Amino acid sequence: MSTEQARRPESAGPSARTDDDWHKSACILCECNCGIEIKLDGRKLSRIRGDKDHPASGGYTCEKALRLDFYQNGRHRITTPLRRAADGTYEEISWDTALSEIAAKLLAVRARHGGDKIFFYGGGGQGNHLGGAYGKALMAALGAKYYSNALAQEKTGEMWVDGKLYGGHTKGDFEHAEVVLFLGKNPWQSHSFPRARPTLKAIAADPERAMIVIDPRRSETARLADFHLQVRPGTDAWCVSAMLAVLVEEDLLDHAFLRAHTTGLAPVLAALATIPVTEFAAHCGVPEELLRTATRRFAAARSATTYEDLGIQQAPHSTLVSYLNKLLWILTGNFGRPGTMYLHSTLAAVAGTGGAPKGKPAKGISKQWRKVVAETTARGATALSALLPTLATAPVTAAPTRRLTRTLLRTAVPALAGNLGGMGGGSAAGGKTTPVTGARIIAGLVPCNSITEEILTDHPDRFRAMWIDSSNPVHSLADSERMRTAMRSLELSVVIDVALTETARVADYVLPASSQFEKWESTFFNVEFPHNTFQLRPPVLDPLPGTRAESDIYTGVIRELGLVDPALVDRLVRARENGTDTFALTFFSAVAGNPSLLNLAPYLLHEALGPHLPAGAANAATLWGAAHLCAFANPAAVRRAGFTGTGIEPGERLFDAILTRHAGVTFTVDTWDDVWAYVKRRDRRFTVHIPELIAELDQLRVTPPDFTTDEYPFTLSAGERRAFTANTIIRDPGWRRRGGDGELRISPADAAELALRDGTRVTVITETGRATAVVEISDMMQQGHLSLPNGMGLDTTDGSGAPIRTGVAANELTSVERRDRFAGTPWHKNVPARIEPVRD
Ligand SMILES: Nc1nc2c(c(=O)[nH]1)N[C@H]1C(S)=C(S)[C@@H](COP(=O)(O)OP(=O)(O)OC[C@H]3O[C@@H](n4cnc5c(=O)[nH]c(N)nc54)[C@H](O)[C@@H]3O)O[C@H]1N2
Ligand SMILES: Nc1nc2c(c(=O)[nH]1)N[C@H]1C(S)=C(S)[C@@H](COP(=O)(O)OP(=O)(O)OC[C@H]3O[C@@H](n4cnc5c(=O)[nH]c(N)nc54)[C@H](O)[C@@H]3O)O[C@H]1N2
Ligand code: SF4
Ligand SMILES: [Mo]
């Protein structure tokens, strides 16, 4: 493991490398970010293999990683900032022009309407979260409040439930579980946990273990399962609540666990006891005996885990089903042991405010800071005010000052910074609801389906500008045409991307980013336990000329804006010149004195710390703050991971390891006893009663589980993960070894009835739009169910420059209105549709 890894020398920078080297990096095509090693042939990623040193993936990759050159060197790369002219064409402009014009326009929107009318979207994809941190700093500089990303069209319902139950994110120990349950999740194709395929194969091969899959489709994972509960699309609420009812009826509960670890259980059990199992099993189309046997197997396991994903998160009753899913493992006591579910540490959050202090930012040194200092060192309170101004301007030479600095670093700074949290990946705290429609904001994220409603209105509080980074919302959010209309109606829209995407094609400015193999990068999808890992990848290539790393783009715009006090930046720059201790004390006391500065932290760190990092690694400056906050928040676990010392030492050592261990770092080592410490409740118990969702559960008896009509007799799942899909990260269709047409899957029975064959072209029609697709008759499908892959239908060009589009852009067919009532998440998996043969 990484704690034993020898320290490697710092990167010599990509240009110094020879083609014989294997360069350590990571795959960027899904959130597993498997460690890879790359061999170069000029600028081509000529050979790619799994990296055995990677602490999570241990050498594993799927077939997609081997095709990453299509991302790095595809025809899609843009190399000059672009400005849209009045006639809709783009002209190339210089970076200086782009940054100064954009800054001026941002300031104008802010002056006219307020900084909170500038809406931010994205800030990271499957492989790149570092740049987005600097986007948060731009938001803070502008006073922007509203933000969202793709999580708000999939995970926010689950996050809301997590918040109510225990206040953290849970994941399962699939590798060691006796029984695993996949709910609307096909990990064979979509992965989402390390080494997914070997793990699935091992479970399938072991007669002592079992796999339960709830999916309307006989997916690759369902084929491996011991129990496939082949629900009718959209009826999981009935299926999972019936399973819970079986647990109650047959008394399969873990009473000792529930007594020791939960509150509010009685009303939940009472509601479950009234569920008519036979009727609900019939509603969801699963034979009652199969449903009961699978439930008994789950309850009998020594250890069990569940994984819910898009099959329920983008389908009717999604927030309710998230709750029911969690009740499955809670009622059977499957938490906090090997092979069960766990909560975990974070290096930086991908969403949420991370618990930054609430209330008005104070001027100067806040009461909170004084209190912490007073509590931790009596002398500190009186000496600090005198100390701070000198710290930044002169080296700490006088012995008493040095001693005090050390005392503060050992005691006050960790205490205080431990309360801050959330730096790096956390979002700036907006309101609790959106300004125009009052939609619920979860984890700081505006529901994706509400975005166009917050723009396409004459409401005075509507969004007036949109900043989009590493995301393709015109393609990925419901109803693409509506999103285009919304973007066109804005006073300003800016896109940062490596490609001229569907979204970039309607923006006012497009800024070309360096690729994820041309800059220091990382993700904050760090969700493992008891060993949690993080990888900062150095670049393997120099930036394509004309492109820039996001941190450079954001800090460039922030400088142009002139909104951040230069004296503050100057103080930090000089403090860093006086050494790490001085810098740490100055930085954390400045932030403690004015907590709103926390959101600017990535910018401040970039300016002050960036010049002291290895060449080109300024992008990573924000991780200094994340490493410290992680060390302050999880002292024992960080120590066990090998980062020891007092005060700021563990954080410094962790940051150093992050910069130098390019295969990845284990940043926390927990024991299973620690897992309860991650329950964010004073009593460390789960709060299992969520009244709003119990009320929704009660309504299942009256709600019809079918949205199809005579006009739209099929249920279309728009966005299945297949062997060669990866959202819209690779745009050249040539990367696919198979599945290149993005075929529409249909059951043999339906195909026979409509006289369709493999390869027949059909028109798929929904209430929102229509598209032409190629049929694939598949015994994965049940009657009445259709499935299209995700990430297809991209507008690109062939070798000769002629425009091409392969497959269906799924969101030309989806609607913003069909969505969850709690979280606003779209029902992409459940779109009423009909098909007609194309007559040509
Ligand atoms: N190959 C590949 N892997 C990926 C990605 C990719 O683009 N390509 N994307 C990554 C991302 S961003 C994500 S979020 C994950 C998503 O990972 P998954 O959620 O596993 O992916 P999907 O294939 O979209 O949906 C999973 C299953 O939901 C089923 N389903 C459809 N309707 C219903 C329903 O009503 N009920 C139930 N129970 N199931 C239903 C589908 O048949 C499908 O098998 O994948 C990640 N991994
Ligand atoms: N109908 C339907 N819609 C869906 C889904 C579905 O199943 N069905 N799935 C949904 C899900 S789960 C997700 S996660 C979303 C994903 O949708 P989005 O969040 O929009 O993300 P991606 O498609 O992954 O797009 C990533 C973008 O980042 C760009 N990019 C790549 N590298 C870099 C870089 O280094 N810097 C910058 N600035 N940009 C870069 C790529 O060119 C691409 O435009 O789609 C969602 N949309
Ligand atoms: S696509 Fe996902 S599972 Fe496959 S190699 Fe890349 S990160 Fe790993
Ligand atoms: Mo996703």
Please characterize this protein's 3D structure:
With 840 residues, the chain is an alpha/beta fold. Helices cover 34% and strands 15% of the residues. It has 28 helices and 28 strands. Strand 26 (795-797) and strand 27 form a beta hairpin. The longest helix has 19 residues, at 95-113. Iron/sulfur cluster is lined by residues 27, 29-30, 32-34, 61-62, 64-65, 191. Residues 30, 154, 183-186, 189-192, 214-217, 219, 231, 233-234, 236, 309-312, 315, 717, 719-721, 725-727, 790-791, 829-830 line the site of one ligand MGD.
Strand order of the largest sheet: 5-4-17-16-15-6-7
Structural class category? alpha/beta
* Cofactors and ligands: ligand MGD, iron/sulfur cluster, molybdenum atom
pLDDT below 50 for ≥5 consecutive residues: which ranges?
Answer: 1-12, 353-365, 376-383, 421-430
Query: What Rg do the Cα atoms give?
Result: 27 Å
Helical content (DSSP H or I, runs of 4+) = 25-40%
Write down the overall mean pLDDT: 90
Strands, count:
28
The major β-sheet equals: 7 strands, mixed
N-C termini distance: 60 Å
What fraction strand? 5-15%
Count of individual helical segments: 28
Task: Specify the overall morphology.
Answer: globular
Short summary:
The protein has 840 residues and is of the alpha/beta class. It is built from 28 helices and 28 strands.
